[in-house]
Amino acid sequence: MKRYLTRKLAIYILTFFLAVTIDWVIPRFMPGDPVQTMLSRANLRAEAVEVMRGYYLKAFGLDVPVWRQYLNFWVAVFHGDLGVSVYLFPKPVSRVIMEAVPYSLALLIPATVLSWIAGNKFGAFAARRKWLDNTLLPVGYLLNATPYMWLGILLAWAFGIALGWFPIAGAYGFDRTPSLSLGFILDFLWHWFLPFASLFLVQFGGWAIGMRNMVIYELEADYSQYLEALGTPRGLIRRYAFRNALLPQITGLALQLGVIVAGSVVTEIVFSYPGIGYLILQAIQNQDYFLIQGCFLFIIIGVLLANLVVDIVYIVVDPRTRRGMMGES
Amino acid sequence: MALKVEGLRVYYQTLRGDVRALDGASFSVGDGEIMGLAGESGCGKSTLGRSLILLKPPMKYVGGEVLLDGDPLPIWDRERMAPYRYKKVSIIPQQAMNALNPTRKIGRLIRELLEARGVSSRDLLPELKRRLDLVELSHEVLKMYPIELSGGMKQRVVMVISTLLDPSLLIADEVTSALDVSTQKRVAEMLVGFRDHKFVRSMIVITHDISILYQIADSILVMYAGKLAEKGPTEAIVRRPRHPYTQLLISSLPEIGVRHTERRLSGIPGSPPPLLEPPQGCRFRERCPVAFDRCREEPPFEELAPGHLVACWRAHG
Predict the structure, then answer these.
(1) Which CATH number fits the domain that encloses residue A224?
(2) Cβ contacts of A321 on chain B, cutoff 8 Å
(3) B235: which of A35, B93, B216, B247 is 20 to 30 A away, CA to CA?
(4) CA-to-CA distance for B175 and B184, rounded, in angstroms?
(5) Taking all residues of chain B, what is their mean pLDDT, rounded to a whole number?
(6) What's CA A291's distance to the chain center, in Å?
(7) Is the CB of B98 less than 8 angstroms away from the CB of A243?
(8) Across the interface, do B103 and A318 touch by the CB < 8 Å criterion?
(9) Mean per-residue pLDDT for B34-54?
(10) Average pLDDT of span B88-102
(11) Which residue segments constitute the domains of chain B, with CATH numbers given?
């Protein structure tokens, strides 16, 4: 058990190291120069440009050789210092991200968790009802195959523009400031609903299909047949089947996490929702090295952590992995 | 008479029509009798066994009657049959090694199974442990998951589970087929032990391996292409088979002391007829070395000597 966890942890640390390195490299390979952008924005006289350039290069730590920048970057990461945003200069990147994180999580976590639960329940339910299997499951396939942003655009058009039931941009009305009042919360939920729905629906389809197939498979398995031959009530057989069918769904969740985050990034962009995804778009458009790095770093840590949680959950729910590990260590 | 089956017909529904896997079976199994059910793959022996406990699509009940201890068994009604399952009729399934839920400890699985059938698992615990001793399993298995057991151990666990409620009839479907030869013998002897301890009143042992039946069965029923070919006491079937198919089946077995480099084992040439549209008359006619004109009519399954029934014109003639 201990050996298994240390090995897993080592893999995660290695992954983290590689992912963060790539994260550092990518913005630097992008064409263009962020300092130049800032200078041209400032519209300075020629001699002032040189002074300002020196100042900015020093402020962003770009005045040292590349390998030094890379080392400095790692040191700073472990101090929780993600640098200063270029386009929101002089705001620190960590603060910019912390302001966006709640919005992203408020979308991602409910959409992922609820769609996983609801999809599994519905899939298991549909597996034993022919009419549901024949009518709603094709819809599930359709949803599953839909790109996130396309469904987002469709929902925004239908419910935001054509019907006018929901706003299509922002996390709250422009006339409001965030507070814990009932009015703000309702307004927030009203803005939250469409991006949530588009994330939820796409994932829901996938989970429902997966669960439906797994439950049918489990109900045909030898142990189900044996229990049925012994006159076991259907309830118990279905409970076993559902429980065992959940295992691959948990693995599926771990595999899907990256895709889901990517989906939420584009969904946020479609709805101009001020989360990490929307921030990434802004950062790229403004060649904000540090903000891009920070956002991706946040996503890397989030996905790795979520994967670790799923790994641990899997050990808890599947005795086969658990026992196998004990035999090994 | 523990079990009496009259004219049982069970077909498989397919898109191309009904496959007549079991086409009129009449036989009986006495109290305390272990009846072996033998025949080639696809002859309908598993269909017969399974139809007695769980008859579900694509299997289709066509006709016939089953009496267990004098009471009719409603095998055609999946719901009404439920109370009889496990308590009156039980089965050791063909894939006994995969018959246990992999994510439940065996003790908990048994407890949940018993509670679901309205039996107190606490009252049965001492008996359960006694029977584990009998099949040489440690009580520790109750705290284990199926993957922690070997194939033979799982097989024995399933044997204990299946017979825990002392059913009147036990159907053992190919229980020895997946085991190595030495384990086969032990398992076969345990089955006899179950009968001797009165855990089960009577037993149908389905197998394609007649040598196992020779060790444990009181009588043997041979099936061919969905029909009964011959039934009789084990000695009579093995020593003096009357149906040509049984004769060929027995002669294709290796004998101890015979060197098969000198005398080649003979198989049975040809293959069984399709059961989608079976031929008229005796179904073995095409492969039978002694077939004659009369075989175009269907031979009756009739008694030749007391307890020895044969469906062959030659034997009756």
Answers:
(1) 1.10.3720.10
(2) none
(3) B93
(4) 8
(5) 89
(6) 17
(7) no
(8) yes
(9) 91
(10) 90
(11) 3-88+206-256+265-316 (3.40.50.300)
